[in-house]
Every structure is written in C-alpha cells, then in structure tokens.
Amino acid sequence: MDPKLINDCVHCGFCLPTCPTYALWGEEMDSPRGRIHLMKQHVEGTPITPEMAGHFDACLGCMACVTACPSGVRYDRLIEQTRVEVERQHVREPHDRAVRGLVFSLFPYPRRLRLLRPTMWLAERMAPFLTRANPSLGAMATLAPRVRHRQRLPRLVRARGERRATVGMLLGCVQREFFPQVNAATARVLALEGCDVVVPPEQGCCGALSVHSGRDGQARRLASRTIRAFERAGVDTVVVNAAGCGSSMKEYGELLGHEPPFRVVDLSEYLAELGPVAKRHPLPLTVAYHDACHLAHAQGVRAQPRELLSAIPELELREIPESAICCGSAGTYNLLQPEAARDLGDRKARAVGTTGAELLVSANPGCTMQIAAAMRRGGSAIRVAHTAEVLDASLRGVTL
C-alpha cells in the first residue's frame, strides 16, 4: 500500500453518500475513508485481522468515491494494492477459500464456462437448495442467463462499404459464453460503421476479475496473454464492450509496468469518436440507461452512450435515480458477497422500476445479470439489452 496515496485522504466525507456499503449499513469502517484509515493502520504495523479483511472484502471497488473525491484520492489504486496484501497475508476460512477457488478457476476460462452452460437449467431449479447450502452457489445458479444459440465470430469481419478503420475486438469470458449475441451485435455495428473487425481466436480472459480481487499473479498472466494475442493480430486499437474489462485493460501499464502496443477504447467511446455514417432506423422504445461503474467512474465514459442512444429516432431515453450507486455486481462481488449484492441489486431494480421504461440498457455483462435477476425477484417484466444490441437493431432496421 502506498503511504503517499493514503495520506492524500483528508477524511472530508464527500465519498460517504456515494459508497454503496455505507449506504447499506452506515458503518464508518465500511466507507472509503474508513477503509483508508484501516490501510494506514496496516502500513504503520498493524497486521491484517479477520475483521479488517472483512471490511476490505465488503468494498465493491465501484470507484464512485473516486468520482466524488475533491482531493483526487486514488482509492481505486489503494483498494487494489490492499487486496493483494489481503490475499498474501490473510488466512481465509475453508468455505471462503473453496468458493474463491471455484470462482477463479472457472470464470476467467471461457472453455470451462462453456462446459458449465448446459447445466444451468438444472442449477436454476436447484437454486433454493444451493442457497441454503451456500449463498454463493445459490447466487451462481440464479444469475446466469439461458443461452439459446452460440454465435461464432470469424477471425475477420469486413467493413460494410468504405473501410474507415481496422480494430481488434475483445470477446471476454462471461460476455463470450453467456452473451454471444452482444459480441455479434458489436461486430456488426462496427462493420456497418466502416470498420474491419479483427477477432483473434487465441484471446482469453483479460484479467479483470483477478486484478479486482487481489489475485495479482493470475491477473498478470492473463493480461500478458491478452496483449500477445492482439499484438500478433497487428491492430493499434482494441474495442471492448464490457466495462470491467475495458477498465482493467486501460490500466495494463500500471499492472505490468509497461504499456501495451495498442490503445483500448470502450465501444461507445470509439463510435462517438469515429462519428456515424450508417443510417439509423426508428426504434419506438422507452429506454433506461444504466451506468456501469467501471465505465462511468473508472473510464469516465458517461455522455457517449447516451448520445448514441439519443440519436436513434423515436427512442426516448430516461435516467435512473441514484445512478451513481452500484448495482451490486462488481465483478465477482455478487458471488463472494451475495447478501450485500442482493440488497444493492434490489435497490437498483426499484430505481429502474420508477422510470417506467420498456428496456434497460447496460454496457457490462455482470450488471446485466445482476439487475435482470433483481428485476425478476421484484416481479418486473422489463427487458435488458446491451448498447450494442440497441444500435445494431436501429442500424439494421429490425425490432429489438
């Protein structure tokens, strides 16, 4: 943990209203400034106790506090450094070690997720039993969506019309296996806007889930493999359609000590930069747009997706109350801290419900699963889609 970053905090409290766990429990040690106080204690010689580790584990890493902080405190760097220390020094209870071992031996590996997919219908039916046995297993069973058709993308998707650019595209892990339609829509949108889209077949997990959970070694290995895949592809820009992945890939320089030979941009960020050429067809829908934390707070991408959606004829965009408060997904948080995540998911679902929108749009697969599950619990029939799917429907003139 960097003492200088710790000392940047003046404990003003501007972070408190934006912190999801402080909003839930009102406990000082479950706020950013409280956790920074614990970090300072550790740097000054206090060992990491189980109670201290519990407060660090309860943090979602949503970075809303980074946006709110008037002093520019890099809480995002601090919590990542702290989690590495927790993983190195703290001895977890056997059941916690078992759940974490399962999560991090499964989710960063798309082929393993693929083998799991056909069993999800059974897991969903067994969810009440699994929840009683272990809340984390119950969360896994209830969150995953049904995948009807697996869609394979070719190594190269050619631009429609005049080629304006060539970009690489990250497939992701959860996105690839549970939301293949989002990747297909992303490639079509880029192609319709004049991009050759290169899809390296050897790409795997970008390392985001691992870096957000303090698994430094695994994160470095996965990040290095991702860099090699796109380096071999020969692209200078990689477009990402998952907020958490894009956030981590933009920080590869800090993780590995050297910058990758390409720049990383979010899909909405890149399309806004590129400018539209393809015709938008009307979509008569009321849409609520959800700010994924790792897109809004980590990457500062807020205006671009709203501009892209608002440019679609007959689409009405509605804002969600408390948009800065995390939905509770936060990478693996809803698996490792299922009770707190459920409370935050239900809170977000109620906020979405007040908009009266027909469609919820999200730019992160974790958020999509989390909010969809919460909406189902609340008895809502609202549909959920990715920004790419909405744009794809408008560009092709099809219903969504």
From TrEMBL:
- What keywords are annotated for this sequence in UniProt? 4Fe-4S, Electron transport, Iron, Iron-sulfur, Metal-binding, Repeat, Transport
A Pfam match: CCG
Cofactors needed by this protein, per the record, are:
[4Fe-4S] cluster
Quote the EC number.
Answer: 1.1.99.14
- 4Fe-4S ferredoxin-type domain location is 1-29, 50-81
The cofactor note from the UniProt entry for this protein is: Binds 2 [4Fe-4S] clusters.
Coiled-coil regions listed in the entry: none
Reaction(s) catalysed by this chain, per the record, are: glycolate + A = glyoxylate + AH2; (R)-lactate + A = pyruvate + AH2
Functional description taken from the UniProt entry: Component of a complex that catalyzes the oxidation of glycolate to glyoxylate.
Task: Kindly provide the name given to this protein in its UniProt entry.
Answer: Glycolate oxidase iron-sulfur subunit
